[in-house]
Amino acid sequence: MKLWILTSLTGVVLVLIIAEMLRRRKLKEKYAALWMVTGLLIIPLGFFPRGLDSVAETVGVRSGVSFILFLSVVFLFMVCLQLSWEVGHLEEETRTLAEEIALIRGTSKQASSDPVPPVTAAAVASSAPNPSETGAAS
Amino acid sequence: MIDGKRVLIILPAWMEAEGVAEVIKEVRATLPGADTVVVDDGSPDATSQVALGAGADVLRLPYNLGVGGAMRLGYRYAADNNYDVAIQVDADGQHDPRCVPQLLEKLEHADLVIGARFAGEGDYTVRGPRKWAMTVLATVLSRMARTKLTDVTSGFRACNRDLICQFARTYPMEYLGDTVESTVSAIRAGYSVRQVPVAMRERIAGTPSQSPLRAMMYLLRIGLILVVALGRKVDMQRPSVTTGR
């Protein structure tokens, strides 16, 4: 029976990845709690994959390992759902920003009454304040 | 100004550089009292420049949002600039601006007026799955609105100040959601929707997309959109003040 070696190693690696990503600020704080709790649950279950056998038995699942499998599928499903929601939310935000940009650009265009060509990278660079000028002014 | 009302014609346009100038000129000639705004839905071609050259105001989206996205911007513009009536007209020239006065007249007794293509005028016909989709839509929506609505997917529509403000906030962006879902939400929020028959013309430029597979997909999507639109929580609320109709 070498199951615990596989599960514990996987658990440790996952927790290390989570910890490192948190440390490098690659995960937002609002997700940090979720992943910390996930990590803390993974470690003991990795070392004792049969630890949930009794709990599994009471809810009608024969083996603790399949119970964990079931829980992880539910968990992943919920994470996916949350991410879909988040993407929709972000889309709505960028849509609003796009509208604002179009409105601002529209009004400035009318003020100058000249057809303004679409903004190009070169135009942005040339219209940016010259660093030496701002330095001299201050 | 038309009959004391500030009227805005919104033309959502994507890749219409060829035809848009002609449409704008026609709209301005037939409706001198109305203002025209073209919402360029992130076209890579010269649509905005052409539209500006033809004398319309232009709002240019930085990237493509779809007709619904373009229309919410149009309604926002109408709301910000205090227009009393906003009329959506396709920039491909299939809607005849000479029908606009009929829409305006009907708007005296309704909040949203749809220019319907199958109500007797013109010779616009469809067949197969596309027709079934139209029939299902027409039946369900007519029953909901307690009036005859035969062509809710029409993009030729006029609405009053109340709905401009609602649409400025909540106009759906999904494919077909712009016409079907917006109409369903308006009805469910208690707004009155009516239709007037209009004749459709050949598009000035561009080709209509019709193939059996596409028509079938269209039917499925219409079904899905209808179910979603009917099941969704109503996100607009008609003000309780009665406007005497």
Automatic annotation (TrEMBL), chain A:
Highest taxon of source: Bacteria
Bias kind Low complexity: ranges: 111-132
Entry's transmembrane regions: 6-22, 34-52, 64-85
Region ranges (Disordered): 107-138
Pfam families with a match to the protein in the record: DUF2304 (PF10066)
Keywords: Membrane, Transmembrane, Transmembrane helix
Keyword Transmembrane helix carried by entry: yes
UniProt name for this protein: DUF2304 domain-containing protein
Species, as recorded: Actinacidiphila paucisporea
TrEMBL record, chain B:
CDD domains: DPM_DPG-synthase_like
Keyword match Cell inner membrane: no
Glycosyltransferase 2-like domain mapped to chain residues: 9-164
GO molecular function, one term: transferase activity
Gene3D superfamilies: Spore Coat Polysaccharide Biosynthesis Protein SpsA, Chain A
Cytoplasm listed as a keyword: no
Keywords: Transferase
Family: Belongs to the glycosyltransferase 2 family.
Name of the protein: Glycosyl transferase family 2
Organism: Actinacidiphila paucisporea
